[in-house]
Amino acid sequence: MNSIPLNEPWSLAKSPTVFCGLVRAADLAAVVAGGVIAYAIRHGDIDMSANYIIAVAFAVLIAVPIFQAGRIYLFSLLEEPWEQLRRLLPLWGGVMLVLLAGMVFTKTSSSFSRLWLLYWLASGALCLGLLRALIALKMRAWRRDGLLTRRVAVYGAGEVGRWLLQEVAQKGDGTVDIVGLYDDRGARVADTLREQNLKLSGNVNDLMSYMRENPVDSVVVALPWTADRRLRTLIAALQSSPVDVQVCPHNVGFLTRNFPLMRDSEINQLGGLPVFTIISRPLTGWNWVLKWIEDMVVAVPLTLLLLPVMAVIAVAVKLDSPGPVLFKQKRGGFNGRVFTLYKFRTMEWQGNVDDVRQATREDPRVTRVGRFLRRTSLDELPQIFNVLRGEMSVVGPRPHALPHDQHYSKVVAQYFARHRVKPGITGWAQVSGLRGETDTPEKMQQRVDYDLHYIDNWSLLLDLRILLKTVFVGFVHRNAY
Fold it and tell me: What DSSP state is assigned to residue 238?
C-alpha cells in the first residue's frame, strides 16, 4: 500500500470530467494556433484579416462536435499517443473538409489562399499531435506518481473483504490504490490476515480519522449482508464524509431495503471489478471548480468593498465594551475538520471562549453594538476571511460549535452529513427562516433537512437565489438576536 502525502491537492483522478474538458480547450487552442502559424508561413506576419479570423472561428465551431463524435476524450485513451493520433488526425481532416465545403457553399473560397489551407492542414495536425503526445507523456508520469489512481479504503476484513483485496491485486487494472483495510472485529481474523500477509489499519473511528487527514476517493463496504447492525452503523457514519461509498454485490439487498435514499445506486467499475455506488460525493467534476470560482468571485471583491465597513465596526466594538474585536471559536467544517471561525464580538467579554450557549431573545450578554450587529448579521462579515482561507464557502450549511455538533449528532438523523461540503456564511436554511436559537431537536432536524436538500440539489442558480435572498431578506430577520 502506497503512502499518501498529507494534504495533497485534489488529484486528477477525482475529476476526469474536468481534465477531459481542459483537453478539449487545449485541442481548440491547437486548431487556432495551427491557423495562425499557417498564415505566418504564407503571408509573413500574423496580422490576419477579418475573413481569415472568421474562418478560424468557424473551424473551431466545427471541431467541437466532430472531435466529440470521434470519442477522443475518453480518459483512458489519453495515455495512448498513437491511438489518439489514429483517431484524431482523420477527424482533423474532416474539419478541414467541412470548412472547405462551407467556403464553396458561401462562394467565398476565392478570398482565401489555397496554400494557407494546405499549410493549416499540416500545422494543425502537427500542433494537435504534439499536444496529445505531451499529454500522454505527462499522464504516464502522473500514473507513476500515483496521481491517477483512485485511493480506496476497504471496510471488512472477513471473507468478503479478503476476496476483494485478492481480486484487485490479481485482476485489477492498476487504477486503484488500497490505502487501508479496516474492521471493528479484526481481532477475530488476525491469524488469517497474517497468513495472507494483510495488515489491519484500524476500526471505523480510525477510518474516519484517516479520511479527515488524507485524500480518499471511495470506501468499499465488504461486510456480509447478515451483519445488518454493523452495516447500518457504518453507512450512517460514512454519510458524513465527502467520499463515494461502494459495496460488493453481497450487500446491495440489505442496503437498498434499509436505506431508501440509496435505491438509485449505480454500478461502477473498481479496478475492473463491478461495485455498486450507493453514496456519491457532492460537487464532483466541474461543479467543484464552479463552486470555487463562485467563492473567489464573490469573496475577493466583497473583501475590498467591505474593509472600510469592517474597520468602522471594529472601532465601534472596541469603544462599546472591553475585550477583543473579534470572537474566535472552533467549529466543525468540511469532512469534520475543525477550523477557527471569525465573527465580530457581540457579547460582554468574559474571557471564556468555551461558552457555547446560544444567544436568546433579549440576552443580557449582548452589548449595545452587538445587538445591532446581530440583528443585521454584520457580525458575520469577518467570515469572508474564512472563505479566502478555504475553510468556508460563501453559501453552505452554517457551522456549529463543537459541543453542539456532538450533542445534536446523537438526536438528529444524518446530522454529520452536513459536513460533506464546506460550511457557508449564509445558507438555504438561514434564508428559509430557520435562524436563531435551536432549542429543540425538532428545530435542528428541520435545519439539517434544509441543509441536506441544499447539498443534494446544489447548482449555481440555487446559490444565486440564496445570495439574493440573503441581501434582500436575510440580513435583518426576526430570529436574528
Answer: H
